[in-house]
Structure prediction request, 726 residues.
Amino acid sequence: MTVTNTQTRTAPIVSTGVETTWSYTFDVAGSEDIRVATIDTEGTVAKITSFGVDLAAKTVSFGPVPAGTTVLIYRATEPVQETDLTVQGPLLPEVLEDGLDKLTRIVQELREASGNAVEEAAAPLLMSPGENSQALPPPAARAGKVIMADAAGNIIAAEGQPGPPGPAGPTLSAVTISADAALDQDNHDNKLILVDTSAGAVTLTVADSGTWRFQFARLAGIARLRIVRLSDGAVISYAGDGVCAVDGAHVVVHGSREADSRPLAVGTLGQSNTLGANDGGPNPASPRVHTLDGGVSPMAIVVGGSDYTQLPWTRPAPDGNGGNNNIALAYAHRLAEETGRNVVIVMDAVGGKSIDEWVASGTASTRYAAFKAKADYLFGLPEMTDVDKFHCIIWDQGEEDSLTMDEATYLAKFDTLVNQLRAEAWFGDGLPLYTIGQSDLHDRYQIWQAQQDYSAYHDNAVIPVPVNGCLTEYDVNGDGTGDPTHFLGPSLWEIGYYRVAGAARLAPESAPALFFGRSTGPTQPGDRTAIARFSTLVGWDSRTGDFPVTTAFNPTGALIWGGAKAYASYSYAFGYPDVEVHSSYSTAIGRDLKIYKGGYSRLSGYQNQIGGPLDEDPSVRYGAADGRGHIIMDEGGYACGKFSKYTTAQTDAVMFQVGIGTSKSNRENAITVHASGAVELNVTHGKTPAQNGELTFVLDGSDDTKLYVHVRGNDGTVRKATLTLS
Prediction:
């Protein structure tokens, strides 16, 4: 097998007090690698050791647990190697793949643990090898204090005022470390303490003897560590910007600058899936996720506005969604977890609106102007000091236009929207604009293709977010009933928390579909009909340049293959490179074929020509020839056979020729029909009739006044009459 799922844990699940079955989405080799932990409303962490696992359904069974309890399900693969390969024994691909899969899972778990500190469900900040996990003190016990270890090595909350991370947080008081505060010792008999610098400056004084090792970290976010070694009597001042002032013994500082504490802004605009039309799915509370409330005057940031059952989410559109889940809200939770920074959401969305509502009147368009007013207001607030741009914008729109706009029409309007946003002071070039895909009902239309094309060929900072597999009511019912347009609450969360976040990390160039099925969207295996998105198809051998690959011709509705060339629209050229079609509605198949001025003509075979050459005036329409060596110069003329006689325009136009020539210098017709109705018969190659009822004319080879008529009767007898010519 392969490992393509990068998830190692579920998002936190808040229990309602009745659940006994819990779903997970990550891959796992066996039930022994699944771990479950709970965090009660007081912050106490507990591991669940007795639970059932259904690997096929990807569910865990236990409980119920009290309402409000947060449930964490995650993977912890044992780091052991149990495969034993023997000399000259069988080496099966599955054996190697299983080993590589296990290593990949372990790497994923290590990355998750180091990046987000979730492994072992809130493991201790200070832990020696083999030490059991310790929970942080509950919120009430750690409020306004500093997390550290006591004399026994246990995690405690010490006196201090760190405050929440951010520019407005209070300054931590100076701390003196004495012998009475002896802490855990490392392998070098050096004493260890972790000090929170998230609030700003801190001064530490070492009063007792020995060597201390300090770790300066942001406890609430991703750690940015400074490790300092110093002797007794030294005083170190940390200003919060990566610079340490030292008075005393030698100090060594390792690490990088302090993590950015400025808030992030996420904008979102579009139709009803932007709003979120369904509840359900995760709804964690986070003190770091905030929402701009556009439903009050003046507008205001709702601090901790992360619960979609509370204001401003319970407001009606365009400022809320009536209390449903939301893509941007889910992504904001992910951002807050990964960065440790506050995230502010700005939303303006109304269902059932065409893209014209954002672009028809430029920036004065109704819905664009509404979003712009909110964005302008946000970046003027004191809470956004030193922040002047969105982290990203999420666009989810297109269903309203699916049945009325083709790709080119929507693409032009979408280009206008992107240019409007890029011109704003709070967005600009290069910042990500995520475009959310439509449900299975709508992605068959051309809107999603237009958005993908824009990313691939116009602006690669416009990042399509695929939603295949995300569910609507129609998908769940499975009987052809239900809403096929709006994503369910759990899928809204999945799109924001996992898929937008995934697109932020890896946004490969789109691969727009080149073919569509009949009313089914992009072609799938098994489709019997494929409808091409392009008008003209040119074979590789018919290209005329390589750097870049190109052609010297650009007709509409043409097929060109095998090295042939077609310069006119609605023409078809197949064959060797000396096949050329210069007039519309014409076809040439073969070798050394030329259709010049005129149109509505056809050639097949070898060394045939209609009209021309190009630098001369003759324009011949409705011509055709099959065989070899024909030149059609009269409008409506047709020739078959080989090397027909007439190669120039005639006063009595030649309509039909049966060529019996042998070369360009030896042209001859058996039959010629003129526009006047005159018919020419070749009587110089007479023969005895071979079939009953057959008639032949033969001119006497030595006397031009004698013409013989031969007829084979039904009795098989050939009878002859002589006509005297004068």
User: Anything to note?
Assistant: Residues 594 and 609 are 5 Å apart (CA to CA). The radius of gyration is 41 Å. The chain is about 15% helix and 25% strand. The mean pLDDT is 79.
